[in-house]
Amino acid sequence: MTALLVLFLLIIVFVVVMLAKTVKIVPQARAAVVERFGKYKSTLPAGLNILVPFIDKVRYLIDLREQVVSFPPQPVITEDNLVVSIDTVIYFQVTDPVAATYEIANYIQAIEQLTMTTLRNIVGGMDLEETLTSRDSINSGLRGVLDEATGKWGIRVNRVELKGIDPPPSIKDSMEKQMRADREKRAVILTAEGQRQAAILTAEGSKQSQILNAEGDRESQILRAQADREASILRAQGEGQAIQTVFQAIHDGQPDQSLLAYQYLQMMPKIAEGSANKVWVIPSEITKAMEGLGSSIHEIAGIPRDATPRTRVDMGPSEPQLPKPSGSGTSKVVEEAIAEAESVAQAPTRTTPAPVVDAPAEGGPPRE
Questions:
Q1: pTM, rounded to two decimals
Q2: Fold for the domain defined by 67-167
């Protein structure tokens, strides 16, 4: 019984081993390279595959997905003899598992060395400034060379990127100083531009302000001149009307010799009020002088003794009417108002001619 049990266990183990050697499951996006007696036989796709046990053997399991490999920084000398450190990143994909297995022993190491040599060749023809600003051209050159060289290895290089370009520390300090100088220069230029624009705007504002002030002064002077002119016209018209009113009142009152003598007597105290008149002698013949005073003053004033004008003088409007200035016609309106005032002031007064009175003889009545 023990021997049968051992034999049964051996048979089970053999069956399990046979199944393991016969059935091969390949994951998705993988490819298995199968060898028979050490020679390439076939490539197994993803899924369940049957092998001949103990004859067929899976030599390599190749990953068909795109892979990313980052290489450490490599020292590269530029055209101007400066050493810079450049680290790269390679994106590649295995397209032919058989070529990747049998054409190259270690394709990742081969890609790394090929990248380093190609990078030194490309950067060696550039100076530092061009190297720092020509990442796209360097990437394109690297990708072209790597894709051409790795094609026979069953590998396609999809993309090459320069992860970093590090110049020497002394060069970094010089670059920082240059960058600061450039920024300070731009700041000074911008400040000068700002001050220039501010000065221009200030000058333009001052110019506009002076222009507006001058226009305001001009308008105010014009308005003041027009107001003074109209005030002068009103004063002239008022004086003319006052003279006409007094003249008309004298004619309406019909003054005689007694009134004139009375007015003369009222003026005598005022004549004596002067500070220089210390002594004032009244002549003894003042009575006789008073008799002929009325006729003398009356004749001198041109007022007839027995007749006064009965015709009233046209006084004109009691309130002077000045046309309101409007727009550009102000001067014309004012000139018309002046002409009207002058015509009213110069209008002749119609009076009855007074009879001619001869000077009276001394002590006698006046002769007509």
A1: 0.47
A2: Tetrahydropterin Synthase; Chain A (3.30.479)
